[in-house]
Amino acid sequence: MEARGRVVLLNGASSSGKSSIGRAMLPLLQDPWFLVPVDAISGLRSTVHRAQLDAAEVAAMLTRTRRGYHRAVAALASAGNDVIMDYPLSERWRLHDLLAVLEGYAVTLVDVVCAPEELARRERQRGDRPIGLARSQDVFAHDDRDLVVDTTATSPEECAAAIVRHVEEHEGGAAFDRLRRRLAEQPSP
Question: Model's pTM, two decimal places?
């Protein structure tokens, strides 16, 4: 049986710097690692809609694409590939689903934090996100992680180096195992 790949989950609000950190990690890691951002298959930006979708249809489509994203990452890792996920755990079901789908994988959970004022500045500068999206996302409700990086005043390259050091020094994260044990007693959303 082929060895399973490792997964680094960069969790943080929109505009917190997850994508920039992921890109900065690639040249620092032993090849091959794959950066697989959820935005690449988010549903809204990567599909063409001929019919106008109502709110319920959009929500159902986004749930399907996010569940598919979880399984695509697991498929890559199941073939022995190492994967960096750029993904906010902004809905409770996402974590529950990932805990099930990635059971048996070495997952390092990294919370990417940033001061609210800086998030708002980045949203305005980007222009491709609704203003206030980052503040509205409850991405740290799980209350456990393997590592925290703060992008308020730290560069993506410095954050990436800290994450790579952590990955190289540990066999995989412990947060997913702790969360799996803790949440096993709670009903799935």
Answer: 0.88
